[in-house]
Design brief:
Layout lengths: L4 H13 L4 H9 L4 E5 L2 E7 L2 E6 L2 E7 L3 E4 L7 H9 L6 E8 L2 E9 L12 E8 L4 E4 L5 E3 L1
Antiparallel strand pairs: 1-2, 2-3, 3-4, 4-5, 5-9, 6-7, 7-8, 9-10
Length: 150
């Protein structure tokens, strides 16, 4: 049975919240396949040794690595669809990220869970780690939330 994009997003977010790596969840989703269509013009594919990509049209917008990093690209398309696809596959582990625009500039923010939010309902659930401009080849370490560039 084929999973919808929403179901896939929930699986990535739910399983990574349980402590699994995003890469491991995506390997499981692909199973024995090399490539799988997951939404209109969007595929999940093995693209290298220890790499799985979310491909929108012909652009690898997300490349998850076995070393628990993810590389982001927009292919020059700062569109709502590109941002939505990237954000859909942001893991929900201890560290996550979001791509957004601010004053027409594409940006990326990494966040960590706030352990105080468990005891204090007024505490924010996520705390920002870094907020930087998005460039082609932005790399996020999913263990620390550090943002670097290729």
């Amino acid at each position: 049975m084929a999973l919808s994009l929403t179901d896939l997003s929930k699986k990535v977010r739910g399983d990574t919240a349980g402590g699994r790596s995003a890469f491991g969840v995506l390997v499981e989703m692909l199973g024995s396949k090399e490539r799988r269509n997951i939404a209109h013009n969007t595929d999940l594919a093995r693209v290298g040794d220890g790499e799985i990509a979310v491909i929108l049209h012909w652009t690898r917008i997300l490349v998850f690595n076995i070393n628990n990093t993810v590389t982001l690209r927009s292919g020059g398309w700062n569109s709502p669809t590109t941002r939505a696809r990237i954000n859909t596959f942001a893991p929900n582990g201890p560290v996550t990220f979001r791509v957004y625009t601010k004053k027409y500039e594409l940006r990326v923010v990494t966040m960590r869970r706030n352990s105080a939010a468990v005891d204090d309902i007024h505490a924010p659930y996520w705390l920002d780690i870094e907020d930087k401009p998005f460039t082609e080849g932005t790399v996020i370490d999913l263990d620390t939330g550090a943002i670097s560039y290729l």
